[in-house]
User: Which sequence fits this backbone?
């Protein structure tokens, strides 16, 4: 990849000489491996690779994008010129929108650390791990099916800009997931869990697969026998993974600057407004050790820890360079792309609520009669950021009586308005957990990017639970 | 831009065999796309991209492996073949491995997949069309907070040691608009997705988005509601796609993950519902003349008057039951294993009224659901519905009344769609493989956010 940086820089210079105000490029080499072990066989073992260069050119405030998989000098220049042509086609049809590229990016190289490259590990070792996970799950009475996946990713990116910026970012991520299906007299139910980290094979191989698998399987059996709760409003205790979903979906998306600029966020015009109690601080952190690795965004802007809500008050939006200029704030390093050919969008990195003072057991005791909600078996969530409405499917949950777990529940969904929920957070736990995944991520405008999210246990009042 | 024409799939198959593959199948796709995007009524981005994807799957004995990615030269393609063989050699034996699909060919029935005008539309024309949509909003007190118009053209080639190459050219056009009331809250997202660009349909989409955005601005959270739920066509398609599509996959049935296992010949859905897998619907995105295994596609009845007649099979699942594939082997990516999926799952409601308004006229009390979030979070294993209404209309005395929002829908799909189907309309819409009209059901809980 490094060998083409000079040619990419030349192509950027060419378009700026032809009138472009600013141009940048993303060079990417990406590898992904997925192994699926389904009940009694390897149902899929595949490897894929992506490699190319994507150009973005600003002309009269408009952005044109074009990309190429060929890396010879002529192909690079042609792609840059196509991006310029695209920008000009828009500029001719609409009014300029003002400055969008403001501050210069620097030069740096950032690499995540790992010990064992997962792509060099013998295939039999990876399959053996999955077989063990599936066989352990199937040995649990009541489990009728189990599926395990191994995923590994190597992502190398170089961001080059027309004002001299040159940033290299590379990371390796590995993970394991397991889903178990159990059957009882009440029907089938599925519970899944996954464990991923920005790390090499050493992370996955250190997992206690037997106990993680047995626990997931046991929960699927319990879930298959559980009842669906009656829909209504409840006091709930949310475990950290559910808090991550809540923060990412319900608040995180609404704080994305491109949606704010477009008027498509409930948080527009609310900077400085109190949205939650003093015990609530929410951040987007590109370098949390258990989250995804984003030391720089795909514009080459350094990503640190962005405080979105500070002690209950909305302080800042997530913004790329274009949105920052409109919003009158600094870029926060949140411009990201799925791959080299995708257009820049404002995305979260690792979004979580900072820990508070309550021990988890104190939260349970304080909750009294409530519902304890976990994410095991959750399929994720969705939000309408303009209205602030959200919904998630969560995993197996429990009725709490005097703070003690009693009857299991399944088919639980959470929904509501984020601004109501933030005000209803009564207690914030001290046990922060952040999680990422090599199997999925966050989808927006057809682009999937890896993210992390999390938080500590929360006690929330008056939350809408959907069931029967 | 590199040319994918330089990739010779038959040479690749020969290379794979020489390198030690027992069987080999190759999929080559080439796509050229242009998209223009607008924010707040201003067109601010244009993106062109050209992608050539190669997928290679090989077997070595009863062991299989796949590799793939973006390529531009035969040298890169051969490296992918090498990787696929390496994976297959080290993979575990599959006791049920039947080999790759032996029946490679094209369906005897033809279908329109390619539109010349869509294939040749220029960036300038797309910009003009998007600008026209924004102009349509001009007098309607709404703004396009986000809008996007995309056209693609390309082809898919499949070949294996058993036959081919077969080739299919196709185009596609996608339009999405998020309209918002000027300076107000709320908004509405609408879309158009077909294999050809239809200006009139795109304009209809814009007008509907504008009307609904205004309604959204005055929608109020409702309390708990009772009565029928009328899923508008797109919402009905979304629920069916999430819950029913995985359940009719023969693979999920064989692996113990479908609630429909062992229920062939049973009354699973309402007698009013007939569901046909139809790959020959003109210009629909699920239409195809061969599936991702190169097997000819075919039309088949999945539910006849609610009775389950067949599951969907790829070659692997069909072989396990000693039968022929139904031509429903589709892949997540060209290098992935196939699994059964529908082409266009065409849902028909007996006794449907010509329009949604006429269908609703028979409903005394209920909710017309036109926009939701989270319906894809419903549970295909248990049939549990999960969906939150972001825009709906109260139905009272047979007429569509005030707009409402923030209502959580719950209940079991199989109970509601077996005994609760009360009618439908003829306003069919297709969403990622499911074409459904609006459907009226009872037995769905509606929990409101209003205190």
Assistant:
């Amino acid at each position: 990849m490094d060998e083409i940086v000079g040619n990419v820089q030349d192509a950027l210079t060419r378009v700026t000489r032809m009138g472009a105000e600013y141009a940048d490029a993303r060079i990417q080499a990406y590898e992904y491996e997925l192994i699926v072990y389904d009940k009694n066989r390897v149902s899929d073992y595949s490897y894929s690779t992506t490699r190319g260069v994507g150009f973005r050119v600003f002309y009269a405030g408009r952005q044109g994008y074009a990309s190429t998989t060929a890396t010879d000098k002529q192909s690079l220049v042609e792609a840059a010129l196509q991006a310029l042509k695209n920008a000009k086609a828009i500029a001719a049809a609409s009014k300029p929108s003002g400055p969008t590229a403001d501050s210069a990016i620097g030069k740096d190289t950032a690499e995540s650390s790992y010990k064992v490259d997962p792509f060099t590990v013998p295939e039999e070792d990876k399959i053996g791990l999955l077989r063990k996970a599936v066989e352990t799950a199937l040995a649990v009475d009541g489990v009728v099916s189990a599926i395990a996946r191994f995923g590994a990713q190597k992502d190398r990116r170089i961001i080059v800009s027309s004002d001299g910026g040159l940033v290299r970012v590379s990371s390796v991520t590995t993970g394991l997931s397991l889903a178990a299906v159990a059957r009882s007299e009440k029907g089938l139910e599925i519970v899944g869990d996954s464990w991923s980290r920005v790390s090499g094979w050493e992370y996955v191989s250190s997992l206690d697969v037997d106990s993680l698998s047995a626990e997931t399987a046991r929960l699927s059996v319990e879930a298959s026998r559980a009842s669906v709760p009656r829909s209504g409003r409840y006091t709930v205790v949310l475990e950290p993974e559910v808090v991550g979903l809540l923060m990412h979906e319900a608040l995180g998306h609404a704080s994305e600057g491109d949606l704010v600029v477009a008027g498509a966020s409930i948080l527009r015009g609310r900077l400085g407004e109190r949205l939650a109690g003093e015990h609530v601080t929410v951040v987007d952190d590109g370098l949390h050790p258990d989250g995804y690795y984003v030391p720089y965004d795909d514009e080459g802007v350094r990503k640190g820890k962005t405080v979105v809500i500070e002690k209950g008050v909305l302080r800042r939006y997530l913004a790329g360079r274009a949105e920052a200029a409109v919003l009158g704030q600094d870029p926060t390093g949140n411009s990201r792309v799925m791959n080299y050919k995708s257009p820049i969008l404002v995305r979260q990195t690792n979004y979580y609520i900072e820990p508070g003072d309550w021990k988890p057991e104190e939260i349970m005791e304080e909750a009294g009669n409530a519902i304890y909600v976990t994410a095991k078996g959750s399929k994720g969530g969705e939000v309408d950021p303009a209205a602030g409405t959200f919904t998630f499917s969560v995993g197996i949950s429990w009725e709490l009586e005097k703070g003690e777990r009693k009857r299991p529940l399944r088919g639980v969904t959470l929904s509501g308005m984020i601004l109501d929920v933030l005000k209803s957070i009564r207690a914030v736990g001290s046990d922060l957990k952040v999680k990422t995944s090599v199997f999925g991520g966050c989808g927006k405008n057809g682009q999937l990017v890896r993210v992390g999210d999390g938080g500590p246990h929360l006690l929330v009042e008056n939350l809408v639970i959907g069931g029967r | 831009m590199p040319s994918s024409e330089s990739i010779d799939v038959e040479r690749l198959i020969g290379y794979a065999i020489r390198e030690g593959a027992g069987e080999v199948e190759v999929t080559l796709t080439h796509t050229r796309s242009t998209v223009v995007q607008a924010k707040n009524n201003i067109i601010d981005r244009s993106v062109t991209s050209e992608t050539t994807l190669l997928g290679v799957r090989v077997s070595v004995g009863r062991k299989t492996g796949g590799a793939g990615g973006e390529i531009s030269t035969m040298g890169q393609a051969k490296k992918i073949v090498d990787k696929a063989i390496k994976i297959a050699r080290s993979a575990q034996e599959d006791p049920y491995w039947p080999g790759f699909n032996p029946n490679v060919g094209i369906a005897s029935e033809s279908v329109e997949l390619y539109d010349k005008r869509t294939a040749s539309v220029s960036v300038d024309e797309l910009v003009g069309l998007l600008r026209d949509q924004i102009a349509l909003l001009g007098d309607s007190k709404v703004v396009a907070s986000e809008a996007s118009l995309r056209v693609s053209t390309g082809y898919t080639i499949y070949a294996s040691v058993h036959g081919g190459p077969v080739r299919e050219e196709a185009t596609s056009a996608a339009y999405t608009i998020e309209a918002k009331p000027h300076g107000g809250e709320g908004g509405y997202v609408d879309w158009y997705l077909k294999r050809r660009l239809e200006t009139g349909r795109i304009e209809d989409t814009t007008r509907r988005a504008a009307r609904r955005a205004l309604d959204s601005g005055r929608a109020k959270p409702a309390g708990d509601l009772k009565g029928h739920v009328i899923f508008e066509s797109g919402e009905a398609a979304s629920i069916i796609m999430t819950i029913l599509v995985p359940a009719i996959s023969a693979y999920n049935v064989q692996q113990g993950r479908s609630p429909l296992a062992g229920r062939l010949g049973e009354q699973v859905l309402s007698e009013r519902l007939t569901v046909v897998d139809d790959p020959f619907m003109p210009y629909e995105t699920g239409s195809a003349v061969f599936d991702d295994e190169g097997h000819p596609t075919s039309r088949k009845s999945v539910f006849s008057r609610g009775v389950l007649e067949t599951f969907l099979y790829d070659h692997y699942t069909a072989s396990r039951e000693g039968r022929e594939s139904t031509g429903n082997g589709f892949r997540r990516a060209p290098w992935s294993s196939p699994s059964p999926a529908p082409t266009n799952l065409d849902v028909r409601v007996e006794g449907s009224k010509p329009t949604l308004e006429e269908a609703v006229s028979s409903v005394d009390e209920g909710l017309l659901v036109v926009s939701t979030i989270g319906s894809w979070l419903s549970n295909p294993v248990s049939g549990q519905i999960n969906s939150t209404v972001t825009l709906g209309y109260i139905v009272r005395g047979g007429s569509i009344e005030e707009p409402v929002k923030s209502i959580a829908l719950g209940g079991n799909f199989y109970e509601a769609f077996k005994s609760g189907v009360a009618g439908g309309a003829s306003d069919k819409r297709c969403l990622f493989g499911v074409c459904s009209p609006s459907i009226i059901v009872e037995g769905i809980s509606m929990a409101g956010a209003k205190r």
About this structure: Chain A touches chain B through 91 residues (CB under 8 Å).
